[in-house]
Amino acid sequence: MADVKIPYSLNSKAVAQATRAWLHTRGVKIEEIAELVMLLQQKYYPSLTMEECIHNIERVLSKREIQNAVLTGIQLDLLAEEGKLLSPLQEMIENDESLYGVDEILAFSIVNVYGSIGFTNYGYIDKLKPPGVLQRLNDKSSGKVHTFLDDIVGAIAAAASSRIAHRKQAEREKELGLPHEPEDSEETSEHLDAEQQRQNSEA
Fold first, then answer.
1. Mean pLDDT across the stretch 123-151?
2. How far apart are CA 24 and CA 30, in angstroms?
3. How far apart are CA 127 and CA 79, in angstroms?
4. Which regions are flagged for Basic and acidic residues bias (predicted)?
5. Which residues touch 172 (CB under 8 Å, ≥6 apart)?
6. pLDDT in tens, 163-193
């Protein structure tokens, strides 16, 4: 009897764990991304705390679209770092070629999850590149390739900032007695995450 190939089945927990593990392996801390979120949002919400920033980053990282982008970008950076891509793509990613914009397109897939405000946040943080994680990732003298990762980190911060803005607006409307719920409430997010895990386990 011929061997029967077992159909591929996604392990959502493994994908989520790998996403966080690879960010850590590449030297990116959640607290550093939170500093970017604080930079983007504190002037609008002076009482914003680092705990809130971290919480919203965690919610962003729980989404499969974001996990897919993180894993894809980091793998391409690693392959370029090891010289394993074919020319001319190898040289373009290795040198962060200015006319190569696929890294930013991948970042857009992250910010798009939270609407158009994410693009504004991303554009600002990408141009500013404040001291901290983004400047470190852009340091070409390190010998590391972070062509995709620097944009990914900026996009995660932008997405978390957008999530905060949407939720703060919902909170204001609730205080005014207006019938509104945030598009990405904790309850909705947790329900969707649980449903996705259930579907994957049944696949």
1. 93
2. 9
3. 26
4. 168-196
5. none
6. 999 888 777 777 777 665 555 555 555 555 5
